[in-house]
Write a structure and sequence with these properties.
alpha/beta; Restriction Endonuclease; two-stranded parallel sheet; 9 helices; globular
Amino acid sequence: MVTSHLIPADIAAAYEIGEWRNATGVLQTAHPDEWTDIQEALRSFKFYKSEVLRGGGRKSVIAERIDVFLLERGWVEKKFETKIRVDEEERDSPTHKVDCFKGKVGLEIEWNNKDPFFDRDLNNFRLLFELRVIDVGVIVTRSSDLQRLFKSLGKKVADKYGASTTHMEKLLPRIEGGSGGGCPILVFGITEAKYVDDGDVVNDAAADIDEEGGDEGE
Protein backbone atom coordinates (compact mmCIF):
# COMPACT_ATOMS: atom_id res chain seq x y z
CA MET A 1 0.00 0.00 0.00
CA VAL A 2 1.20 3.50 -0.81
CA THR A 3 -0.19 6.79 0.43
CA SER A 4 1.15 9.14 -2.24
CA HIS A 5 -2.45 9.64 -3.41
CA LEU A 6 -2.71 12.01 -0.41
CA ILE A 7 -0.41 14.50 -2.15
CA PRO A 8 -2.48 17.40 -3.55
CA ALA A 9 -2.97 17.27 -7.32
CA ASP A 10 -1.24 20.59 -8.01
CA ILE A 11 1.94 19.44 -6.26
CA ALA A 12 1.84 16.01 -7.92
CA ALA A 13 1.59 17.77 -11.29
CA ALA A 14 4.67 19.92 -10.65
CA TYR A 15 6.97 17.32 -9.05
CA GLU A 16 8.05 13.76 -9.71
CA ILE A 17 7.07 11.78 -6.60
CA GLY A 18 8.68 8.84 -4.86
CA GLU A 19 7.49 7.27 -1.61
CA TRP A 20 8.77 4.61 0.79
CA ARG A 21 6.84 3.06 3.68
CA ASN A 22 3.74 5.28 3.50
CA ALA A 23 5.63 8.49 4.22
CA THR A 24 2.81 10.75 3.00
CA GLY A 25 0.36 9.14 5.37
CA VAL A 26 2.80 9.55 8.26
CA LEU A 27 3.20 13.24 7.47
CA GLN A 28 -0.52 13.90 7.08
CA THR A 29 -1.62 12.09 10.22
CA ALA A 30 1.29 12.47 12.64
CA HIS A 31 2.83 15.77 11.51
CA PRO A 32 0.14 17.89 9.82
CA ASP A 33 1.78 21.23 10.60
CA GLU A 34 5.12 20.19 9.10
CA TRP A 35 3.30 18.67 6.11
CA THR A 36 1.53 21.99 5.55
CA ASP A 37 4.89 23.82 5.64
CA ILE A 38 6.36 21.41 3.08
CA GLN A 39 3.38 21.77 0.75
CA GLU A 40 3.55 25.57 0.92
CA ALA A 41 7.30 25.50 0.25
CA LEU A 42 6.82 23.27 -2.80
CA ARG A 43 4.00 25.44 -4.15
CA SER A 44 5.93 28.68 -3.79
CA PHE A 45 9.20 27.32 -5.19
CA LYS A 46 10.42 28.42 -8.63
CA PHE A 47 13.81 28.40 -10.30
CA TYR A 48 14.92 30.86 -12.96
CA LYS A 49 16.88 30.63 -16.18
CA SER A 50 19.32 33.31 -14.99
CA GLU A 51 20.05 31.29 -11.83
CA VAL A 52 20.75 28.12 -13.78
CA LEU A 53 23.13 29.98 -16.07
CA ARG A 54 24.89 31.76 -13.26
CA GLY A 55 25.63 28.72 -11.12
CA GLY A 56 26.64 29.31 -7.52
CA GLY A 57 28.98 28.64 -4.64
CA ARG A 58 28.68 26.19 -1.77
CA LYS A 59 24.92 26.28 -1.86
CA SER A 60 23.03 27.74 -4.79
CA VAL A 61 20.32 30.36 -4.47
CA ILE A 62 17.96 27.75 -5.90
CA ALA A 63 18.45 25.39 -2.95
CA GLU A 64 18.50 28.24 -0.46
CA ARG A 65 15.03 29.33 -1.58
CA ILE A 66 13.47 26.27 0.08
CA ASP A 67 15.79 26.53 3.09
CA VAL A 68 14.82 30.12 3.79
CA PHE A 69 11.10 29.44 3.35
CA LEU A 70 11.19 26.68 5.98
CA LEU A 71 13.56 28.47 8.37
CA GLU A 72 11.11 31.35 8.49
CA ARG A 73 8.51 28.84 9.70
CA GLY A 74 10.50 27.44 12.57
CA TRP A 75 12.55 24.74 10.87
CA VAL A 76 16.24 24.58 11.83
CA GLU A 77 19.45 23.09 10.49
CA LYS A 78 20.18 20.36 13.02
CA LYS A 79 23.16 18.20 13.94
CA PHE A 80 22.53 15.45 16.47
CA GLU A 81 25.10 14.26 19.02
CA THR A 82 24.72 10.47 19.18
CA LYS A 83 26.72 7.84 21.05
CA ILE A 84 26.85 4.05 21.28
CA ARG A 85 27.33 2.50 24.71
CA VAL A 86 28.43 -1.11 25.27
CA ASP A 87 28.74 -1.97 28.97
CA GLU A 88 30.94 0.82 30.33
CA GLU A 89 32.45 1.78 27.01
CA GLU A 90 30.94 4.71 25.15
CA ARG A 91 31.78 5.80 21.62
CA ASP A 92 30.63 8.72 19.54
CA SER A 93 28.41 7.73 16.63
CA PRO A 94 28.09 10.99 14.71
CA THR A 95 25.31 11.66 12.24
CA HIS A 96 25.38 14.26 9.50
CA LYS A 97 23.43 17.46 10.01
CA VAL A 98 19.94 17.68 8.54
CA ASP A 99 19.26 20.71 6.32
CA CYS A 100 15.81 21.37 7.80
CA PHE A 101 14.33 19.79 10.93
CA LYS A 102 11.09 20.36 12.80
CA GLY A 103 8.83 18.16 14.90
CA LYS A 104 10.57 14.85 14.10
CA VAL A 105 10.55 15.53 10.36
CA GLY A 106 13.88 15.80 8.53
CA LEU A 107 14.18 17.40 5.08
CA GLU A 108 17.20 17.45 2.79
CA ILE A 109 17.64 19.56 -0.35
CA GLU A 110 19.89 18.12 -3.05
CA TRP A 111 19.78 20.42 -6.07
CA ASN A 112 23.19 19.73 -7.61
CA ASN A 113 25.57 17.69 -5.51
CA LYS A 114 27.49 14.57 -6.42
CA ASP A 115 25.08 11.63 -6.24
CA PRO A 116 26.85 9.88 -3.27
CA PHE A 117 25.31 12.62 -1.13
CA PHE A 118 22.10 10.59 -1.43
CA ASP A 119 23.84 7.71 0.39
CA ARG A 120 24.74 10.10 3.20
CA ASP A 121 21.19 11.44 3.45
CA LEU A 122 19.51 8.04 3.41
CA ASN A 123 21.91 6.54 5.93
CA ASN A 124 21.34 9.55 8.16
CA PHE A 125 17.57 9.11 7.94
CA ARG A 126 17.93 5.41 8.71
CA LEU A 127 20.02 6.04 11.83
CA LEU A 128 17.85 8.88 13.12
CA PHE A 129 14.70 6.84 12.58
CA GLU A 130 16.16 3.86 14.45
CA LEU A 131 17.04 6.24 17.31
CA ARG A 132 13.44 7.57 17.25
CA VAL A 133 14.65 11.08 16.51
CA ILE A 134 12.70 11.40 13.25
CA ASP A 135 9.48 9.77 12.08
CA VAL A 136 9.88 10.57 8.39
CA GLY A 137 12.50 11.90 5.97
CA VAL A 138 11.90 14.13 2.95
CA ILE A 139 14.29 14.83 0.06
CA VAL A 140 13.80 17.53 -2.57
CA THR A 141 15.95 17.08 -5.66
CA ARG A 142 15.74 17.43 -9.46
CA SER A 143 13.65 15.39 -11.81
CA SER A 144 15.99 13.67 -14.26
CA ASP A 145 13.87 15.07 -17.10
CA LEU A 146 15.35 18.51 -16.41
CA GLN A 147 18.46 17.38 -18.26
CA ARG A 148 16.68 18.17 -21.54
CA LEU A 149 16.18 21.74 -20.35
CA PHE A 150 19.80 22.08 -19.29
CA LYS A 151 21.02 20.78 -22.65
CA SER A 152 18.90 23.41 -24.38
CA LEU A 153 20.77 26.09 -22.41
CA GLY A 154 24.18 25.03 -23.70
CA LYS A 155 26.98 22.55 -23.09
CA LYS A 156 28.36 24.29 -20.00
CA VAL A 157 24.99 24.10 -18.28
CA ALA A 158 24.45 20.47 -19.33
CA ASP A 159 27.90 19.53 -18.04
CA LYS A 160 27.28 21.32 -14.76
CA TYR A 161 24.13 19.27 -14.15
CA GLY A 162 25.64 16.00 -15.31
CA ALA A 163 24.57 12.38 -14.96
CA SER A 164 26.65 11.86 -11.80
CA THR A 165 24.90 14.64 -9.88
CA THR A 166 21.82 14.45 -7.67
CA HIS A 167 18.56 13.73 -9.50
CA MET A 168 15.68 11.26 -9.24
CA GLU A 169 17.15 8.47 -11.37
CA LYS A 170 20.07 8.33 -8.93
CA LEU A 171 17.87 8.49 -5.83
CA LEU A 172 14.94 6.12 -6.42
CA PRO A 173 16.99 2.90 -6.87
CA ARG A 174 18.77 3.64 -3.60
CA ILE A 175 15.48 4.04 -1.75
CA GLU A 176 13.92 0.97 -3.34
CA GLY A 177 17.08 -0.97 -2.47
CA GLY A 178 16.52 -0.21 1.20
CA SER A 179 19.24 2.38 1.81
CA GLY A 180 16.91 4.28 4.13
CA GLY A 181 16.12 1.19 6.18
CA GLY A 182 12.73 1.34 7.85
CA CYS A 183 12.45 5.13 7.74
CA PRO A 184 9.42 6.39 5.80
CA ILE A 185 10.78 8.60 3.02
CA LEU A 186 9.04 10.98 0.62
CA VAL A 187 10.94 12.49 -2.30
CA PHE A 188 10.07 15.28 -4.71
CA GLY A 189 11.78 15.78 -8.06
CA ILE A 190 11.56 19.35 -9.32
CA THR A 191 10.24 19.42 -12.89
CA GLU A 192 10.20 22.00 -15.66
CA ALA A 193 6.78 23.11 -14.39
CA LYS A 194 8.66 25.12 -11.74
CA TYR A 195 11.02 26.76 -14.27
CA VAL A 196 10.72 30.44 -15.15
CA ASP A 197 12.39 31.86 -18.26
CA ASP A 198 13.18 35.34 -17.02
CA GLY A 199 14.34 36.54 -20.41
CA ASP A 200 17.72 37.21 -21.93
CA VAL A 201 20.70 37.31 -19.61
CA VAL A 202 24.11 38.81 -20.22
CA ASN A 203 26.32 36.62 -22.37
CA ASP A 204 28.94 36.39 -19.63
CA ALA A 205 26.53 34.77 -17.18
CA ALA A 206 27.22 31.24 -18.35
CA ALA A 207 30.94 31.85 -17.90
CA ASP A 208 30.35 31.85 -14.15
CA ILE A 209 29.50 28.16 -14.27
CA ASP A 210 32.15 25.74 -13.04
CA GLU A 211 32.48 23.13 -15.76
CA GLU A 212 33.20 20.27 -13.34
CA GLY A 213 29.60 20.13 -12.15
CA GLY A 214 28.06 19.00 -8.90
CA ASP A 215 30.05 21.32 -6.60
CA GLU A 216 27.38 23.93 -6.41
CA GLY A 217 26.26 22.58 -3.09
CA GLU A 218 22.81 21.48 -2.26
